[in-house]
Amino acid sequence: MKKLSEHVLGTGSQAGMVLGDNGMVLLSDLTEDFTSDPEACEAFLAWPGLTEGESASSLRTFHGDDYLCAFYKDPAQNFTFLSGVPYSEIVGPMKVQRNLSLAVAAAIFLTAILLQYIITKRLYRPLEAITEELRDSKYAGGSDMDEFSLIRHVYENAIDEIRELEEENAFYQPRMKSDLIRGLVLGNRDIAQTKELLEKNGWEIPFEGMFLACFFIENSDSSDVLAPIVQTRISQHLHETLSPLFYTECVPVASDQVICLINTIEGIPITFDELVRLLEAAKDELLTDNHLVLTISLDGVTSGIEDLNRVYRRVLELKNYRFVLGTNQIIYPGRVMELMPEYMTYPDKLADEILACMLHGKQKEFTENVQEFLSILKQYSYQPASLLFNRLYLDLLFQMQKLNAPDKDSYLSAETLHTPATLTEGAGVLLTIFEWYQERKAAAEQLKDNKHFERIEESRKYIEEHYNDYNLSAGMVAEYLGYSTNYFSRIFKSITGFYINDYIRQIRIVKAQELLMNSDMTITTIAEATGFSNPNYFYSIFKKETGLTPAAYRNAGQRNG
């Protein structure tokens, strides 16, 4: 019977029966249970309508298990087919899904509450919001509205108290100390207030006798988001290197600068040379481990807290000597003094050879002579070395301006290229002039067939003869040649590569340099003699083009041998 039931009704968790016309159970997968428990079977089949209707459904119970049952009565055969599914198999998955949905909803709800708490308690700053409202209010300047004035007064007092609490907060103190030192170094802090803060917070900084070292990060991008990390690494390394022997305070003052205040510790004898040696070791380790190229300017000794800004300005001036010494160096006054010769001599013969190499396109000889020229500059300090470099640079530039060739890529002038940061960069600048000269020379050869070529040559000679005329201008030259000003300016630029007013200004500057170097004329007289009606304008243009004031140029240049 069991095998017959399985064959007809199948196997599984569902309950199935076949009843005869008298309600007798013919087949059932629950046959054994029915046989052993007639009362349970009778209760299960006590289903109103089971023998009356053709089909129906009902929730039935057998041995404590609920079944969702349905039957179908075949009127032709008088058999009733009954099937049941355990209720738990239907409701169970629904309960699991419901519980899962409730859990997800609860998680979302709790997350929303947490975010609301963070936004409200951590990110939202009501004081700043109120400050903004008051600042933008039309009553912010004060009025006769007593209530508003009272609110403002109470608010400002509350802000002052909060700021006092922040300053006393232990977490905030290191940052406040760093800001304080930075302000002293940059010269934008009140000394009296600073002393009060130092005493109030118990910060004993030995300013008297302190050295100031500035670390310039040569391979740093000013917009680099990693700059704070790099500065922190430098500060940590300096502290680890110097702290056993020195008192140190390291503070970033710009994206590419870290200031280190250094003082000796009482009872530990140490020399300046030992300090330089330690800084040299730190610099080399940072280069090896972190690929940081550093130039260190070192100066001191400060007489007190008021002296920090003055020493910092001296340190910035020392940085200029990397023009002679190069980067990855430690620069201090004693080393600079070693560069000071008794007098400055311009190597005229070598400069003439460099110029001749450029004119004849001899790049190898040009490069060799430039390197020899720059090696001579290494014996001088920054100012005379930069002066000698600029003189050679302007001599080469002036030869370029004499070429009749259109400017191909960009306008080359003293304003764009003079006084590079180092002599190595200077060599690159001079080589650039050489290459551009060759390009312009080739272009000039092609312009000789231009119908305006001879007229432009005539205009250049006219400028050479009348550069000392205050009224010399594009209009004056155009009138001399019989052109309109606009038309003449266009063809002058297309053939020479220079705007005519820029060309006139360059001629005047070169003539002024010659007079400053080779005459005793006053600067005002030289300005007038070179076509500058306003001495102040001459001063401004000369410094912009050469990097030195006329007086500084003369003082350094007239010592040439």
Layout: helices, strands, pairs:
Blueprint: H1 2-9, E1 15-19, E2 25-28, H2 31-36, H3 38-45, E3 55-62, E4 65-74, E5 79-86, H4 87-123, H5 126-136, H6 146-168, H7 173-186, H8 191-201, E6 211-217, H9 227-242, E7 246-254, E8 257-264, H10 272-290, E9 294-299, H11 308-319, H12 322-325, E10 330-331, H13 333-337, H14 348-359, H15 363-377, H16 382-401, H17 414-417, H18 423-447, H19 453-466, H20 474-481, H21 485-496, H22 500-518, H23 523-529, H24 535-546, H25 550-557
Parallel strand pairs: 9-10
Antiparallel strand pairs: 1-2, 1-5, 3-4, 4-5, 6-8, 6-9, 7-8
Helix pairs in contact: 9-10, 14-15, 14-16, 15-18, 16-18, 16-22, 19-20, 20-21
Structure characterization notes:
The structure is a single chain. The N and C termini lie far apart (131 Å). A hairpin with a 5-residue loop joins strand 1 and strand 2 (25-28). The protein contains 25 helices and ten strands. It has helices at residues 2-9, 31-36, 38-45, 87-123, 126-136, 146-168, 173-186, 191-201, 227-242, 272-290, 308-319, 322-325, 333-337, 348-359, 363-377, 382-401, 414-417, 423-447, 453-466, 474-481, 485-496, 500-518, 523-529, 535-546, 550-557; strands at 15-19, 25-28, 55-62, 65-74, 79-86, 211-217, 246-254, 257-264, 294-299, 330-331. The longest helix has 37 residues, at 87-123. Helix 16 (382-401) packs parallel to helix 18. The strands form two sheets. It has a five-stranded antiparallel beta sheet with strand order 2-1-5-4-3. It has four domains: 2-91, Beta-Lactamase (2-Layer Sandwich), CATH 3.30.450; 130-168; 178-337, 2-Layer Sandwich (Alpha-Beta Plaits), CATH 3.30.70.270; 348-557, Arc Repressor Mutant, subunit A, CATH 1.10.10. It is α+β, with helices and mostly antiparallel strands and 561 residues long. It is elongated and about 140 Å long.
